[in-house]
Amino acid sequence: MPNDALARARALDEADPLGAYLHRFLTPEGSDLVAYFDGNSLGRPLARTADALDRFVRVEWGGRLIRGWDERWMDLPLTLGDRLGSVALGAAPGQTFVGDSTTVLLYKLARAAVDEQLVRGRDEIVLDVDNFPTDRYVLEGIAAERGARLVWVEPSPVDGVTREQIAERVGPRTALAVFSHVAYRSGWRADVPGITAAVHEVGGLVLWDLCHSGGAVPVALDEWDVDLAVGCTYKYLNGGPGSPAYAYVATRHHGVLQQPVWGWLGRQDAFAMAPGYVAAPGIRSFVSGTPPVLAMVPLEAYLELLAEAGVDAVRAKSLALTDFALSVIDARLAPLGVEVVSPRDHAHRGGHISIRRPGFREVTRRLWRQGVIPDYREPDSIRIGLAPLSTSFAEVARGLAALEAQLR
Question: Could you give the residue numbers annotated as active site?
Answer without folding.
Answer: 132, 209, 234-235, 383
